[in-house]
Design goal:
This protein is mostly helical and 174 residues long. It is built from six helices and four strands. Helix 4 runs antiparallel to helix 6.
Length: 174
């Protein structure tokens, strides 16, 4: 007799997991996916909204000025205008990501845009002067570098949301 089930039959096993473990893994994965997607949505939305403040506009100015990809925004729109353009793009990306339950294809567009956004942000680690330093023998990001480095994790989240949106489109097709 099995203590867990009170049955004389062996517990069902799927891929080396009992049915209970498989169910728990599915529920944890589902919860993690929701937290990952909507945590990403919240962060991008919040960061995008902050781009409409003079404080954030001034904070991103040196990053934009040194970027071969985004410096043109400063010339075209000025510091606050460039910040608002970026903020609008970020808010749009957040909304697109959030639409996954009702519009996976639209959410996929948001995921791809988020991937591009995070790659652009990570490029600041290379293009911004004094982004790296040696401290106590360790080569580390300097200044805002540690803040930018978090985008590696966010890039991973955006890649996951893209895969999830593609999977949702595939499930709907069948």
């Amino acid at each position: 007799m099995h203590a867990e089930t009170g049955s004389t039959k062996a517990p069902a096993v799927t891929d080396g997991l009992t049915a209970k473990e498989a169910r728990l893994a599915r529920e944890l994965s589902r919860g993690a996916g929701l937290l990952l997607r909507y945590g990403l949505v919240l962060l991008i939305l919040w960061i995008g909204a902050f781009k409409f403040t003079p404080t954030e506009a001034r904070a991103i100015e040196p990053l934009l000025a040194a970027s071969p990809f985004l410096s043109w925004l400063l010339a075209v729109a000025g510091v606050e205008g460039a910040s608002k353009v970026i903020g609008t793009a970020e808010i749009t990306i957040a909304v697109l990501l959030a639409l996954r339950p009702i519009a996976p294809r639209v959410s996929l567009v948001g995921s791809v845009a988020a991937i591009g956004m995070f790659l652009a942000t990570l490029s600041f680690l290379i293009t911004t002067p004094n982004s790296w330093a040696v401290v106590d023998g360790f080569f580390i990001p300097a200044g805002g570098g540690f803040f930018i480095l978090k985008d590696l994790v966010l890039l991973g989240a955006a890649l996951w949301t893209a895969a999830d949106a593609i999977s949702a489109r595939t499930r709907r097709a069948f």
